[in-house]
Amino acid sequence: MTVSDERGRRIASVADEAPLDTRVRVPWPVDVVRTLRPLQRGPWDPCHRVVAGAVWRTSRMNTGAVTYRLTQDGPHGARCLAWGPGASELVDRLPALLGADDDPSGFVPEHPLLVEAHRRMPALRITRTGRVLESLVPAILEQRVHGVAAFASWRRLVTWFGDPAPGPAPEGMRVPPSAATWRTVPSWEFHRANVDPGRARTVVRCAQVADSLERLVHEPAADARRKLRVVPGVGVWTAAEVAQRAFGDTDALSVGDYHLAKVVGWALLGKPLDDPGMIEYLEPLRPQRYRAVRLIVESGGYAQVPKRGPRTPITDHRRR
């Protein structure tokens, strides 16, 4: 059987496998689409799609691959349909994925924009996937390059080396490659995906110590961030990007981001900030600085930055 959207476009071929059907409740209101938005790497991410209000994702659990479909089920919950050998493990992780571990009660901002955004978006939660490599590889690909190029590299590599999504899924979805697969991706395939040798080496290096990195989810977030940075090629920015998603770290600030300090400055002060200025200004919000950034972004913070000059050029490493 084929599933189509409201315009008649094919989105899935339904396999015979019956899904694991679960409803989950969390202590706080949760907006499923908004809470999981940081997990999507570009509009054509083969591991994350939003179709007619439903979030489709693929992941690689310890027990195997999984495809799952999440839909809003009341203000405090979601309904999940999951396929594949990793389905039961995914269901066990659902509360954390939907922000059950994220207690927003300590967030008391004073800036009017943050106060209003927090009031309007009480269901914005900080997700916790518990899957380190799945957040780490795309973060490495996004180092020092234009986001459009990084998203394209991620899409190519997952499409080429990932596995077919179990059960039904929007067309083109794939399961992220395993650590064993990342370790064996040839250098020329990274090059073909427009990934320079430095980032390629970092991906392979992280895949080689993936078991140790996955265990970091059991440590305090600040310690886990510090230990991530021990791996050559993983800096402050990359560790923060992973912590935000895999550890549910409400304080992980992406220092070194090309745009973030300017976005925070224009949104909160009406002028640009640099990284030291952003760190100083957000210091009173510890340990909730990432929550503040999420509220700024969801409130349209990027649109407040004046457009001056041409866009950053996209480097094509395949021509080198």
TrEMBL record:
<dbReference type="GO" id="GO:0005737">
    <property type="term" value="C:cytoplasm"/>
</dbReference>
<dbReference type="InterPro" id="IPR011257">
    <property type="entry name" value="DNA_glycosylase"/>
</dbReference>
<dbReference type="GO" id="GO:0006307">
    <property type="term" value="P:DNA alkylation repair"/>
</dbReference>
<dbReference type="GO" id="GO:0008725">
    <property type="term" value="F:DNA-3-methyladenine glycosylase activity"/>
</dbReference>
<keyword id="KW-0227">DNA damage</keyword>
<dbReference type="GO" id="GO:0043916">
    <property type="term" value="F:DNA-7-methylguanine glycosylase activity"/>
</dbReference>
<dbReference type="GO" id="GO:0032131">
    <property type="term" value="F:alkylated DNA binding"/>
</dbReference>
<keyword id="KW-0234">DNA repair</keyword>
<dbReference type="GO" id="GO:0032993">
    <property type="term" value="C:protein-DNA complex"/>
</dbReference>
<protein>
    <recommendedName>
        <fullName>DNA-3-methyladenine glycosylase II</fullName>
        <ecNumber>3.2.2.21</ecNumber>
    </recommendedName>
</protein>
<dbReference type="GO" id="GO:0006285">
    <property type="term" value="P:base-excision repair, AP site formation"/>
</dbReference>
<dbReference type="InterPro" id="IPR003265">
    <property type="entry name" value="HhH-GPD_domain"/>
</dbReference>
<dbReference type="InterPro" id="IPR051912">
    <property type="entry name" value="Alkylbase_DNA_Glycosylase/TA"/>
</dbReference>
